[in-house]
Every structure is written in structure tokens, then in C-alpha cells.
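Interim report, section 4.2 (structural modelling).
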Amino acid sequence: MGIVLKEIIKKYPVGNGGKEQVVLNGLSLSVQDGEIVAIKGKSGAGKSTLLHIMGLLDVMDSGSYLLDDIDVSCLGNKEMAKMRNKKIGFVLQDYGLVEDETVLYNVELPLMFSSAKLRKIQSAARKTLRKIGVENLCDKKVSVLSGGEKQRVAIARALVSEPNYIMADEPTGALDEATGQEIMEILKELNREGKTIIIVTHNMEIAAQTERIIHIRDGKIEEDMP
Ligand SMILES: Nc1ncnc2c1ncn2[C@@H]1O[C@H](COP(=O)(O)OP(=O)(O)OP(=O)(O)O)[C@@H](O)[C@H]1O
Ligand SMILES: [Mg+2]
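Predicted structure of the assembly:
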């Protein structure tokens, strides 16, 4: 079980001239079940790119990725989406919520693609919002929420399908220190409950609260500290 990435290469085209930028350059990394890990590195180092690959939101150009012993590179788009829905809760760098809809709608959304009944979906969404301490926000539109509230809703949305992995991209980046710490406490509690948590962060105080800090530089892991 867990995540095993080997020799990952990820390139992006630069302009129209056929030139490429190598963002991840033979990166290898393993994360075990139940770990809480921070990924840091300069802006543009490839942290989001790596998290998106781990979270099955993007594909690598070469290398291998075993997620819970399943070879991800063998999966088609459909199978990959299925696996992502089942295993991964993703908290995007900019929340990624539907601003014009209610909190409840946003948290129900990941379950709308399942075969579950609407009543079940609603109660699962409410239960998850309660767990994260924002059930009172159910009927509010996301656009009126504070940054900390949006981040809690984003975490609830990531959790509602009961994934084993929570991947969060700069979850405290846009928040003040106290609110950021509250979000961190939620992630640490989820880890104590058994979830594997991967957090991308610039913030050393946040990173220092995890069990392991991974530093990315030049498309590789420069440092991996317990
Ligand atoms: N879809 C894309 N197309 C082209 N280039 C991309 C794409 N996504 C990312 N890049 C480039 O890849 C590099 C790494 O981007 P990435 O978003 O992973 O960095 P990051 O470490 O998350 O940075 P930040 O701390 O600013 O969020 C950047 O130079 C970026 O311009
Ligand atoms: Mg990023």
C-alpha cells in the first residue's frame, strides 16, 4: 500500500517552437500509508505538478507510479478517474470551489457521480461538514465565505468520498497565521485518524509539524528529512 514513484519525468511545452521545459527530472519518492508529509521548494519547482501526478489529476511523461500496489501508468482515463474518486481527496491551491453555489452543493458534488441516492449524498455531505466544524454554513454561497471557511469547505469536499489520501496544495497559503494553524490542526487530526496526508507548503512552521519534509529542487528531491 502507499505511493511509490520511480524516476518520474514530466515536461511541458514552452511556446510553439517545440521546446520543452523539464519540470520533474527523474524524481523518485515513496510515501507509506498513514504518513503525514510536507513538500516544499521554490515557486516553480514543480510541487503542484508532482501533487497533481500523485493525485491522478495529471499524467507523467515517463517513470512508474504504484498507488496501493496498482500500476497507474496502465490505467485508461476512465479507470484513472475511478481510482481518483475512490482513493484521493484533493485540496487545490485556489480552493477550486464552485463560487456561485452553496456550501452543501459543493460538498455533495464529488458524490453526484456515484450511484448513491440523493438523500444519502446529502446526509454524507452534512456529516462531513459537521466533522470539519462548518455545518452552519451549509446554505451559504461559497462566494460570501472567508478564506478560512472556504478552505474548510474544500477539505470537506475532499473528504466526503472517504478517500485514504488527502493531498493539499498550499492549504494555508492564503490564510492568516491563526486560521492557517486551524486548518493544519484539521489535517493533523485526519492523519491521526489514519489518513495519509501530503501537504505542499512554503511555510516552514507548517512543514515542521509533519513527520517528514521533502524538498524539491531542479526536478528532483534534494532533501528528505524525518
Ligand atoms: N500546464 C502547464 N503548461 C505549461 N507549463 C506548466 C504547466 N503547469 C506548470 N507549468 C510550469 O511548470 C513549472 C512548475 O510549476 P508548478 O505549478 O508545479 O510549480 P510550484 O512548485 O507548484 O510553484 P508555486 O509554489 O508557485 O505554486 C513552472 O515553471 C510552470 O510554469
Ligand atoms: Mg504550486
